[in-house]
Design goal:
Protein Transport Mog1p, Chain A; Rossmann fold; 3 domains; five-stranded parallel β-sheet; about 425 residues
Length: about 425
């Protein structure tokens, strides 16, 4: 059968599969399916037919490779884009049954509304929902570089095509004109029974401005697993709780950057490659691997004096900064950064560290990658230093999302000693 796929005999494949549909699930001695073969040879016509006939896009061969990983490894860009779109929009639970969107006809299960300063909490919830099979409208994964000029249009599309909404509210949420616009549209179009309010914390300004929220399902907590358990009991029964990171991390890395020592704290990681030396600095090029998962999951670190426009962006005041200007600045820098990569960008993320706005990107380049750019002022040189953290994860997008909070926790621990 692989030879038929290799030769691109679409009509013959169609005839064989039509007569014997179960053949699309059969595996060769390497554990590969026909969809793996189509991905390997870059035959998108056959791939689309196999998917339409019920082929499993998440099937793994004996090496743990999905068809997407195979297409990425063979640099079949047309297959990569097709399979990426399928993986990102395939909303199923563990029993392969549609959760919400497949029943209602809506494209997204949940629309996420939040103030940029609260994105860390919102992102943890979003990633766990995605990893559990829900299809989420979340600005960081939906407003990409190409959508920059259509910011509000893309948001309105999400508002119109989501079954329910989760709002992360507090005083700064109520004071934001953009969040207020979203809340008003949601209350008007969704109704109280389809809105979930997560109060971080409960502050009077919110219900003074949006009194109808008082009739919505709500919880007040800063504990992410309490939020998840609330969602599990009310609107998202398939969502999984998040892995608790120990308060006393097992791993501590001490490096030196331009003569100044810095530290990182983490649990579950081990060094796989000793730090190399660069102009007398230790740690530039260090690679560590997360040992608690079967998938390949690693991180490497590089740093240098930051003389780019990025340093100006990161100096923006995160308390008073306009959400759209912050995100616009992020996309402007991201566009320049990704132009150097042969990669498919799937997410642009705001990260707050050291009282300043930072950034991260999610992209695909044969495996899932999260790159963080964190700029800190050097304690003696008084110049901005950019730390680049690159995390690589070999697995599905849902599996990747399950471990994003692990990456965030490492980044948050960075500090000058």
């Amino acid at each position: 059968m692989w030879e038929i796929v290799k030769d691109g005999q679409y009509s013959l494949i169609r005839e064989i599969v039509t007569k014997n549909p179960e053949i699309i699930h059969r595996r060769n001695r390497f554990g590969s399916t026909l969809l793996h073969a189509a991905a390997y040879y870059g035959n998108i016509e056959i791939a689309k037919f196999l998917v339409a006939s019920g082929a499993d896009i998440f099937a793994k061969d004996k090496n743990g490779y999905t068809p997407l990983l195979v297409a990425g490894g063979m640099k079949k860009k047309n297959l990569v884009q097709y399979l990426l779109n399928l993986e990102l929009n395939y909303s199923i639970n563990k029993n392969s049954q549609k959760i919400i969107s497949g029943i209602s006809g809506k494209k997204y299960d949940f629309f996420i509304s939040y103030k940029s300063q609260n994105v860390y909490i919102a992102r943890q919830i979003v990633d766990q929902l995605i990893s559990s099979g829900y299809n989420i409208w979340f600005a960081e994964y939906r407003i990409l570089l190409k959508d920059r000029g259509q910011f509000q249009t893309v948001i309105d599309e999400g508002l119109a095509n989501s079954e329910q909404a989760i709002l992360f509210t507090n005083k700064i949420y109520a004071e934001s004109p953009y969040c207020s616009d979203e809340a008003e549209k949601l209350l008007q179009n969704y109704g109280q029974d389809k809105i979930i309010e997560i109060k971080i914390p409960a502050e009077p300004e919110v219900h003074q401005k949006f009194p109808a929220l008082a009739g919505c399902k709500s919880v007040e907590t800063f504990d992410v697993n309490e939020m998840i358990n609330f969602l599990k009991k009310t609107v998202a029964p398939a969502v999984c709780t998040i892995e608790i990171i120990p308060s006393k991390p097992e791993f501590k890395f001490e490096g030196v950057c331009k003569g100044a020592p810095f530290t990182l704290y983490a649990s579950g990681w081990k060094i796989t490659q000793k730090g190399t030396s660069y102009l007398g600095d230790i740690g530039n090029g260090l690679e560590i691997r997360y040992k608690k998962v079967k998938q390949k999951f690693y991180m490497n670190i590089h740093f240098s004096i930051d003389e780019s426009e990025l340093a100006k962006f990161k100096s923006m005041d995160i308390v008073s900064a306009d959400d759209r200007k912050l995100y616009d600045a992020l996309l402007e820098y991201s566009k320049k950064h990704v132009s150097r990569l042969d990669a498919e960008v799937l997410g642009a993320h705001l990260v707050f560290h050291g009282g300043a706005s930072q950034l991260a990107l999610t992209y695909w380049m044969g495996y899932w990658t999260r790159k963080y750019s964190i700029t800190l002022i050097h304690p003696t040189l008084k110049k901005p230093v950019e730390f680049l953290f690159t995390f690589g994860f070999q697995g599905t997008f849902q599996e990747y999302c399950r471990y994003v909070h692990i990456m965030d926790s490492v980044i948050k621990s960075l500090e000058w000693k």
